[in-house]
Amino acid sequence: MLQRRIVAHNRTSSSTARPMSLINAHLAEGIGSITFNYDFKRNALSEAMTGEIAAALALFTQEGARVAVIRGQPGAKVWSAGHSVDELPTGGHDPLGWKDSLRMVIREIEAFPGPVIAQVGGSVWGGACELVFACDLIVATPEATFAATPAKLGVPYNATGLLTFLNALPLHLAKELLFTGSPMGAARLERQGVINHLVPAAEIDAFVHELAKGMAHNAPLSISVIKEQLRILAGAHALSPQDFERIQGLRRVVYNSADYAEGIHAFKQKRKPIYRGQ
């Protein structure tokens, strides 16, 4: 029933909205669940898919959901392939500006009034790492892996995205993820306090449900206010106008470069990029 209501809500909110075929959404016992359903593209966070996630979160809020869970299909080898590279500009434009679809859905997760749990099984790539790290709690299977890949594609990450990494990971761990682009196992991240719980795949559904149910029984206004306070405090880093302009200037160097265009073209052509530092 909720799935039908989400479709109707989405169609009336925008003339370009689509039925929610890329996710499955369910609400019961005050817990809203979003399950990725875009296996054809390895659950890539396309504009259409992130729009559906945002619409589901909005409806969960409207319906008074106290907790939201974002998860992949049981047994899926890839939780999400990350940002849809096909939708990135080829050069001369900021690939991760304020209106980028990934940036939008990250803000919706942060603004959701209750806890958002990332339930992760399989591999997490690129921008999907940020989506997971933006969630309030992370529960993963021991087999889950995380690979932050902007350096593989030559993409200049934005400041808010880097802040998500810095708020979730120790600095040197964030650097290793971002500099190498290599997969990092869930067990290592759990030892560092990045992942809250490691749970076998056969038990993770029941575990997450019990975790969510326990939080759903607590005072929702208190949790909502504490979550917003923590968000504000986590982002309270002094930054001068000169430093901000420096950050933006550094990013422009990358997305105006030949290397950036090479990274996008190589990905689409399924070949290894050749970077020349230009």
How does the SSE layout of this entry go?
Blueprint: H1 2-13, E1 23-28, E2 31-36, H2 47-62, E3 67-71, E4 78-80, H3 101-111, E5 116-120, E6 123-125, H4 127-134, E7 137-140, E8 145-147, H5 150-153, H6 159-168, H7 171-180, E9 184-185, H8 186-191, E10 197-198, H9 201-216, H10 220-234, H11 241-255, H12 258-268
Parallel strand pairs: 2-3, 3-5, 4-6, 5-7, 6-8, 7-10
Antiparallel strand pairs: 1-2, 8-9
Q: Structural class, please? A: alpha/beta
Order of helices and strands: HEEHEEHEEHEEHHHEHEHHHH
Weakly predicted, low-confidence segments:
3-19
* Number of β-strand runs: 10
What proportion of the residues is helical, as a percent range? Answer: 40-55%
Mean of all residue-level pLDDT scores: 85
Number of helices: 12
Strand order of the largest sheet: 1-2-3-5-7-10
Radius of gyration: 19 Å
What's the story with the biggest beta sheet? 6 strands, mixed
What does this structure look like?
The protein is built from twelve helices and ten strands. By secondary structure, it is α/β, with parallel strands linked by helices. The strands form two sheets. The chain has a six-stranded mixed β-sheet with strand order 1-2-3-5-7-10, sandwiched between helices. The chain starts with a helix and ends in a 10-residue tail after the last helix. Residues 3-19 have low confidence and may be disordered.
Overview features:
14% strand, disordered N terminus, alpha/beta, single chain, six-stranded mixed beta sheet, 278 residues
